[in-house]
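Reopening closed ticket. The problem is back. First fold of the pair:
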Amino acid sequence: MQGSGYLLSARIVLTARHLLSDDMATTVVVPDGRGRISCRTLWAGDTDEGDAALLLADEDLVTPETVRAFQPNRFGRVAGIAPLLDCYSLGYPQVRRYNGRKLDIEQFQGTIKPASGIVRGGFVLEGAGTPPAARDDGQSPWAGMSGAPVFSGRHLIGVVTSDGAGWQHSRLAAVSLHSLAGVPRVARLFEIHFGEYLHCTLLHRTPDISAEFESRYCAYVAETFGELSIFGLDLSRSEHAQWPLDSAYLSLELVRGRGDDDAPTVQERGRVETALRNRWRVLLRGGAGSGKTTLVQWLATNAARDTFPDQLAHFSGRVPVVLPLRTLVRGAVLPAPADFLSAGGHPLSPPRGWMDAVLTEGRGLLLLDGVDEMPEADRARTKEWLLKLLTAYPRTAVVVTTRPTAVDDGWLSRRDFAEFQLLPMNGRDVTSFVQRWHTAARSIAQRGLERAELHTYEGQLLSILPRKQDLARLATNPLMCAMICALHRDRRGFLPDSRMNLYGAALTMLLVRRDGERAVGAPEGLMLSEDAQQKILQEIAYWMIRNEIAEAGQHDVVARIARLLPAMPHVAPPEDAPQVFRFLLHRSGLLRAPTAMTVDFIHRTFLDYLGARAAIDAQDINLVAARAHEPQWEDIVRMAVGHARDGERAALLTQLVARGDAIPDSSDGTRMRIHLLAAASLEHATSLDPQVRREVERRANALVPPKNVDEAVLLADAGPLVLDLLPGPEGLSDEEATAVVTTARRIRGDHALQVLLEYAEHPARDVRAELVSAWGAFDATAFAELVLARVVTDDLTIAVHSAEQLAALPLVGAVPDVTFHGDLSPAGIAGAVRAVRAERVTVFDNSRLKNLQHFAGQATSLTHLRLVSCAEVDDYSGVAELGLEKLSLFGVRVSQDLFGLDAAADLPALTLGVFSGSGEPETLTLSTRWPALPSITRLHLVLRIDEDTGSGRLREFFPHLRRLLLRLESDEPVTVDLSALTWVPEVEVTITRGPVLLEGADPFVVHRLSRPTEDPS
């Protein structure tokens, strides 16, 4: 019997129960799919449950390309009994056959009548056009339509079951998805196979406009956040400040924080795409200008366009909602989901219930930007609001950004947030950024001569940065890099030599040069000098800092300006304050209007710089010193030292020292932070009373060597002056030596390299591991030759992240364990493996690797090869020539056939981490396409499981298996029968997540690592 069906996933089909035969296997064919594939029945409804069934194919029914294009399933149910217009069904009826027997699709358009058939859990879809004529044999012309899906918009709401008798073939009867959701077995299968409940969104009698709105909203997000403001590109025309995100975005490195409970003992690090793989909830820390907001824009744009790379496939199909926290907390009550768009300043008004449906269906991606930009008093209520939100909508993905010290470690760990820190840009990142900035500038240059000059400036800057250590130390985040590029161009090759001078020059460029270059007259009816603009902006900034707001109401700012103008009669009278505000908003280049009612600074750095100058002008030395222990005042204190005159500077630093001295040593590190803040501020002290300098340095010297990594991070913030205080390794504990290396690594530069040289031959593993991790912070060749070549690496892993490091790796000498990250040359990897005589090699996220032929005949010492998310590998036959003791493949898709792997006749050990296209671990259902591997005696499987483990089939693929390691996980309670594995002499089971119960496991060793699923909060 032929019927129709709907693909819920690559292997699961929803169809009608009466199409199935009790004594014959069901075969499914998908157009442009992978041919006729046998399926087994997961569930078939009885008379009470409904005429529907769920089938599981033996292998994927469609190609991997089709799998990647799948959109999330959306299910709906009709509200009330009013007819629902503009619905349709797609299937393969008899009436559509051509050339005798060939099938074609028919789209049956009509109106759902939800009350018709409601007693039996069904409804009727009544056609809108002329029904087909009856067949001569008396059969329905709609034969073959059974099992076809019924849709309203993008929501699946039922399955066709029959051609209703007595209606002249004008209507089709269907069983509703809502009734199936009430069948316990169906609900359970959805949880197992999709990790979610079968939730049906309520659809009203009017045409479903949610899909149309969602398309408009995603287009709006893609356009709004798809352009990046690049500092310094708008000197000639304001529209030049925006640059396509695709061209301007630079993927930076992240390192896993120590705040979450399951953070690894060895820190994870990698580019954004790698670090956030399979992370649904992330707390991202980063300093001012480090790229946090740019990353939020990138996530929002890719979600809106559904263009995430494969590593972030778990975010695909989600609806992004960008919520600047500084805007949200302006209200007395934080917004409910229905108010998210208006609260975030987005102009579109969603249909009633749309946001609730998005979050309930697990399709939301909340991007909460700037915990540090709201008052400290509001952070607790914001956390409580977020936790309650996640309790109500537990399948929501969330990314939260903050400055490093704004909240404590583990702030959101109880909700399974992974914490990451944005790392400073390394030399490769800086080079790439400089090149992209100049490419963007050339694309908008009006004259050929200007474009030629930009080519020259780019070459000069790329030559200068590696040689000028003071400048290179500034160029460690995107904002500072952009400032340097803009000022280098604006000053025709001359650059400031300090951070404070860099900020000052950037302000002058924005306040004076910007309108001058653009030949703008006085469109607001007045002109303000640079001094007048700075004075007003300083007072606005200082007022915002004192009131702990990063975004202000425009009317409040206008009122503030009006109070300033009586003392500035040469600028404008007080009644012209709105005019002055408009001038600053449109002409200064420092203010922007996130909404029609609010205003903020283009970057927090300029707010702090101007506010610190206002504090010094107001002689608020005592106030600045009194707030020094607050994380959001740290940059303000440093800049205040830079703005201050000699006497003020000495007074401020003296107060900092005294305040630190007054705090007991047993405090929570506040004493150390204040003393180190004073030391870090010396960088901005162009002149200072020698006695005050000695007192500050004496306090810093007392903190050397740092006792642990936390102290090292704080010490490094004090800058290069610390390097002269750092001792050699003699007499230090291993933890202190590791902390010293961490300090030097974070400071960077030639002097720091000399410090690390002293530790290159240290015997402690932690010290050597920290040295190895420092490679990316220095010139690849110099560091490999001078430091890594002297480090004992027998028990360490060296990570290669760039072509420069790949080329320099042979300088290190013998390296037993190497990892290669990203799209490095496969031939280059193989050559480096041979040069360093590597024994264990891991390749991560390499789309250029197609097969293993590059390794064959070269890596003679290789014993263990691991491929992680190398999705383009389609031929494993080269493994036969490697003589491996073990092969590990992670990120293998269920649909892969592992072609050529059977050529490895002598391979004794294999690890398989099998994943589905969604990025989630797949169920333990082994593909029939895999080859038999009789040489394998040790097998390690990393898989997600349901009650059908398929464990009995292992013998087909691995008949000589002697040892089996199983890593199992499940989101829901599940019982697994492992009795079919007793033929394996040694079985060890590790349950990594979820409430998994085992049967038949008495002969086996079982470890349980999973934590309770309930959140104690």
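Second fold of the pair, where the issue appears:
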Amino acid sequence: MRRRITSLSLLAFLGLGTAAFAQVTGVVNDADNFPEADVEVSVKGTYKVVYTDQDGKFDIDAKIGDILVVNGKEFSVTSNALGTLKYAAATSSTVDLSEVVVKSIFNAPSKSGVTTVKAKDLEQMNPSVSIDQMLGGKVAGLSSQAMSGAPGATANVTIRGAIGLNGGVKSPLYVVDGTYMTATDVVAINPADIEEVRVLKDASQLAIFGSRGANGVIIMKTKSAKKGEATVSYSSRIGVNQMVDLPNINLMNAEQLLNYQNGLSTIGNLGLGQARTSEEIATLSKNNHKWSDDLYKNGLTSSHFITINKNDGDTSNNFSVGYDKNEGAVRYYNGMERITATFNNTTKVKDWLRYGINLNGSYTTLDSPRDRVNAQSPFYNTLLNRPYETFYSMDANGNVVLDADGNKVYNPNANYMGYPVADEMEKTDAQTRYLRIYGTGFVEADLAKNVTARTTLGATYNRTQYENFLKPSSVLSQLLGDGGSKTDRSTDRFDYNWRNEVSYENTFAGKHHLRVTAASEYINQSLYSMTMYGIGFPNDYLQTQGLATLIEQDSKTNRWRISKFGYLGAASYDFANKYFVDAYIRRDGTSLAGVDNKYGTFWGVSLGWNIAKEGFLRDSKAVNNLTLKASYGEVGDDSGLAAYANMNLMNILNTYNGNPASFPITVLADNNATWEANKKFNIGLDFGFFGNRLTGAMAYFHDLRSDFLFNKQLPLEAGGYTTTINAGEIKTEGFELELNYDVIRSKNFDLSLYGNVTSLKYKVNQLADGDNLIMPDSYESMIHVEGGKPYQFYMVRYAGVDANTGKDLYLDRDGNITDVYDGGDAVATNKSSLPTLMGGFGLNAKFYGFDINADFTYSAGGYMYNNTYAYLTDPTSLDNHVVEAADYWKQAGDNASFALPNTTGPEYSTKYLEKSDYIAFRSLSLGYNFTDLVKGTFIKNLRMFAQVQNLALWTNYHGNPIAGTGTSESSAVGSSGYVSNSFTAFSYPLVRSYSIGFNVSF
């Protein structure tokens, strides 16, 4: 990402003798009057942008009367001389309103441990993709794994390998213009509204946010108008979706499956497969078709976004409205539809008083198919349904069978479960609706010289409504005999945070810059939920719960409330923009902790040294930036503490001798249960060489997490209760590298390459009671090993096929080869779902008005259990298989892929434990700026573009390794023991989208 300087002066200007364009030249210096390289210089209202060279010089096409924007400051083109000019220091410039609004300490003013992603790095992607997915591959140390390919799906985002020992996802805190948001709220944000994203990773920054920032912080700033700007912009795109084929999954066609089944039927008297004559095979083969053609579609995607902004110097306003629709790629489903709106206002009432408000709203509807591991999932059906079975039921004459109402009847014989999923897909009305309103308001006042006070209120309201109506005429309803069923769920969640801060900021002797802040913060979170189940409805169209024959007893309501309070102190000092010190300390309290241990103290400190500012490098042409940084801090994490787990509760739903009774719940509160602790160390180097053509950063980090929550069994004679204790320790360490290289910089041709890589290493230093811990609720069998990796797969080791007997071979617990499978031989495999290498790379180029952008991401070192491939190679199944399933052992000496088929099918072993390494070609866009065409018209800018999302995926995995959640109905983020990217089953695959569009501003 390009670096922006904070203080500069422009030495002289420029100009043209007429309205004709010519080269305007200048020099940009920093605060110490030294030339500053790689500073962006643009002509206001156009797409003309250049960057200063290693001597701070630039030249740009402009004319008299134009406004040059240099690092946010504006300068008028007044000179009519051509060529190289003599410069005089600028005596005045316009000032952006934001420059007189003191930045809150919660906006991370320190540069330590911050990576910034600009809007231009995100705008190439389809805006229906959630912004947390867009960040994948853009930031070193940040892992963003889409939970599925469904429209509106969010991502499992972690920063620097943040993990716990009880599953789940240690998500970062999202802060949008001061408002705190959760990972599930991210889909409400329209990426077109975002001006920049700042990712905080070091403890020296995270301590500011207390327990909520323990796993990293992602700060998003929405767009605002620059001074003197009055612009109306509109962007639009339309496209089509296409389901991406699963890599390395080559399904059998009808003839191949029939021959495979016929071959299995000849193996002994096992009852495998199905015998048919050659004539029967030939006849059925004529029905060959792909079930994906029946159940998938080429859905449409569209996006429209309009923004109006103005800044007259005292007041800045920005208003936007966006609409996005993504139909996905599954038949019968509408996908995602979202409407967003924002309004930002910042006003300078007096020289000493300012206020601002930021209000955002989003209304989203989601309609997605089921992804469970059976025939109710369309993804299960597209893979396993028999290609020789027709989509609809056919009579003896080859005509489609109709029901009593004249509707076509779906074929129930396509899979072993005898279930036509298309019937459920068509006859289920399911939709989730989200109404989200979030925003902030602040008032800021200068109390005295260099002393500023600020109060900020941020709030988020999220109303979620889910309806699922299974029509009485559906096959499933008739199987259940319930006369149709309806589920209604709704939640109301309201969170707010109130911050007050007082800051002193001053510069002494022109070189010593000091800022000291004292602040307090109160956080309140509350939720109310309702669930109602009804059965027995009069017909397929009347579906309100009041019409249900029976409201079931497990209908319920629920509510909770959490409060937190903290106060902090912060100090920042730098000398001549050369030496830096930042220090933070925060005292936090949470209602989640034990009653005797509610408060914790967290702190962080960072040091920086810009070596390039030293005398021995100041005149260097090769070294432009060389900043050494180090930080250490201790932060607390209360995300593992459940609401009201610090209280002894009663269960009132029991009976005794047929009478109502209540009993204590079996988990007793621990009055000392407290935060998980995280000690973080980081040392790094930011650099810029050769006129900042080569820029980047590298860092080593070391995180030590401890005091995880474990259940401890109390003595049986004390009643058999359990309690929670803080114990355990995990070490995570890694290395990050970010690089950006401007290969070519010229007037009409720019080419830059970028990339980042993060390596990670995990070690469990300690577990409760010193024992290895088998994950009790994880979808796959996993274990934590003291002294080894966390989340190791715990299973029997597979050793191949015996070429002489055709039997599967395994290793017993002692490592001896055996052909007898015994689940008791399961061991820790030293293979984990956690990747050890990840990152992204790409290129940006501009050539005579054309621009091209390519974006790639990659991951390596992790493993996933492949349930999909296990199903597709199971010889006991009569459903479809992959082609290589026919490569099974037949005679002694065969070097076959699979053993001689038997009646037990695949055993649970490492046979289907596969490396989840991949490289994804995520986005490619090509555009053209019509700068010359619209010159002299009311149109300021016009750009047209074409873009492709998810072009290609290279992997050796059989299926889609980019699936954070293998099946959301069995193991979702909120489920106990959830482990991201630990397995694949039948989730929504990747979707490729092709789109064209344009951006225009007036």
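Update: turned out to be a display glitch only; the data is intact. The two ends are 28 Å apart (CA to CA). The chain has a mean pLDDT of 87. Please close again.
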